[in-house]
Amino acid sequence: MPFNSFRALAGLLLVSAPLLAQPTTRPLPPIDSVAGAITVNVAAFASVPDLDDIAARMMHLVDEPGTRRLFVNDMRGPIYSVSYDGKTVTRYFDTNDSTFGQLVQSRGRERGVQSFAFHPQFSQAGTPGYGKLYTWADVQDNQTTANFRPAGGSNTHHTVLLEWAAKTAAAATYDGNAPRELFRLEQPFANHNGGMLTFNPVASPGSADFGLLYVGIGDGGSGGDPQNLAQNLASVFGKILLIDPVGRNSTNGKYGVPASNPFASGRKPEALPEIYAYGVRNPQRFAWDPANGTMYLAEIGQNIVEEVSTVTAGGNLGWNVWEGSFRYVGRGGVEVANQRGDPTMIFPVVEFMHADPLFQRQVAATGIHVFRGDAITQLRNKVLFGDNPSGELFYFDADRPPNGGSTGMHRVLLRAGGEPKNLLTLIRERNAQQGKQPASRADLRFGAAADGRVFLLNKADGTIRVIVP
């Protein structure tokens, strides 16, 4: 080979090698919006009232079967009871009531009452959990000493876990006193404040998981986990905790730490014993498969990849070393080399990218519900999840879950008397009927009833929708 040709080839190789290692914002193929797509029927189920002429910011819906009521919250403070037929909606209580001394911080889209949960013994008189319900909320008071603090930041507000004790479980409205504080976090930034609060609905009385409370906590916010908290086992941020809310063996003596927790009893001295799993960025929603007990998490990514993953005791979901199946290298993208390259990590079951043409500018994974009933034939044995802003719904096979990527996820379209659509389109149609400006985003959330019904929530039209046969 002539010297000049050799030099040109060498130069090409030197240029190409760095290019191959460059971060990318498109690490995945686009979602196939046609193959495997299904359509389900939806209907309006109940209406939650506006607050100050602004639609309810619904975040969570739960079933309290002992009193035969559903409950749904508005992030700004109120929690409403909803009859099983959806015809009666009653304000159960307002966590933001000044008499309770816990004024909610609800500025912006991410702050407010993040979640709530009823103890599985709520309606069972004479049990430790009778009348007990729990809220996980951002509050304005950031001067009370916090149990858990970050490594820096600006102390924008606190997030507090509260226990409320109703005197009469079946009362139409809350008849208890001010809540008891279990613990509080000092938040370094305004975003990624909390996540889901729930008891495992699959756990039966007498099982090891019964009566234990799962608490999702974001990485503290900003972007990229600047304090590296999610991988720090000495920090509460970027974790899923598991506690006994009626126990008392915690450091502050206000809740219990289960002996079965993966880092309890000094199994790893530097780790907080409350931690169940770690390495999460913004663990908005998780749920269990009633057929096999598998726990799934819908995890909001940085700005490239969204994911749904399984969660196991002591498991590391990778953030901020990994974003989905890919090495996280900053806001500029992810590396495709060495994909899923660490066998100690839990990598996604399915994942999708922000750059997918199916979505709008903002993308955020949400969910999640494992459908094992027979009432909706199309959904049988499927795991449902979605994209929060666009209101797009998806599923994958619960019995043969994928192993990463977007090829195993398929679209779910909604029919409400016309052509199949996504949730945001249905919301905008409802906004037109209400005489309101069309919503810019759906803010999709799921809810479920003990009888198998699946509900769709949003923050733009006050309508709870139910999937129907």
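Second entry:
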Amino acid sequence: MVKTKEDVLATLDKNNVRYIRLLFTDVLGHMKGMSITRSEIEQVLEEGQGFDGSSVEGYVRIEESDLMAIPDLHTFRIIPWEVGGERVACMFCDIQNPDGTEFDGDPRAVLKRALRKASEKGYTFYCGPEIEYFYFRDPKGTEVLDHDGYFDYSTIDEGTKLRKKAVVALEQLGIPVECAHHEVAPSQHEIDLRYQEALVMADFAMLYRFVVKELALQSGAYASFMPKPIFKQNGSGMHTHMSLFAGGRNLFFDKDDPYHLSKMARGYIAGLLAHIREFTLVTNQWVNSYKRLVVGYEAPVYISWGRRNRSSLVRVPMYRVGKEKATRVELRSPDPACNPYLAFACMLTAGMAGIDKGYQLPDAIEENIFHMNEADRKRHKIGSLPGSLAEACDATEVSPMMRATLGDHIFNTLLANKRLEWDRFRMRVTDFEIDEYLPLL
């Protein structure tokens, strides 16, 4: 990994790289960027690259358009395929105002602020997302490339070949892959990245989506991270494993606890459960996200936690003897179309609130909640996630924690964008309505 400007320049020249992409994301998590040439990079590494932010979703108004992209040297990588016959490198950037202050519309800055607060207490936040996606024949429909199921393995399926190409490319980029496999639905796949510090993992998640989509397009197919693209099939999730460390010690582990969870881990889970409705707008930010969060398709709906219970919102993976560092909690509601910088920041903030304020963790639920009736859930005091984008907006809008975490700029921009999306959706006449009502009414 490069550490200095000199390292970057030497690596560019050694590999005959002529173009460098400067990457960042908009508020919704779409990758943005600009390309510069080798001759310009020395000055950019010293001063940053100016750009017009007025056309980037959630950034600035036209009269406030000037921004600076400051490359993060630690994110420097060479893209493992040629673009137009040329070698291309990339770096993620932090976005600043022209006066050098942090731009408050930069999602990466939101996560960095949350991580600084944890660091001030001596904590390092680790994440490991399980990112699922689909391969389709083209972006015009949902014709699948295979009809395999969970953990099926075939070397001849197009989807399997594409997934293997993505794994190779990720590892060539220096992104460690833990495992890869077919998921439950036809043409649905998952590549799991090795646990990393949260900022590193958020950058990796952005590159993951870029690599998977780019390689699919190069092969004449289409990869989609849409949460629920196919009716009556499982949607795609981004189950996220989390833990806090101090030095090399996992602060979530306690050998004497029945679940091997420390008091801190229990507080963290309690924080997630207490605030999940407030930040679901960030982890599940699209109208389509709520087509996945329904009973019957393995996605969580009810606010609870457990160990073996995969109907719970938060799951604690079983402890393996001698693997104290692997003790973690898994939040199962996020989907792969979220902005990972904002999502990780909200998860951390909610969990830290539970630790700092001493939230009490309710009893674990090990029964299948999907089989409970309303009276059973009420007896166990099990609440529900928002059922629609509009309900998620309502929960976020009244949350002081969300406003503080995102900052006024992103908080207001995100809500305005999502309210508009909901209005556009609710005005649309769907095929369901035509099929159900036209013959009847």
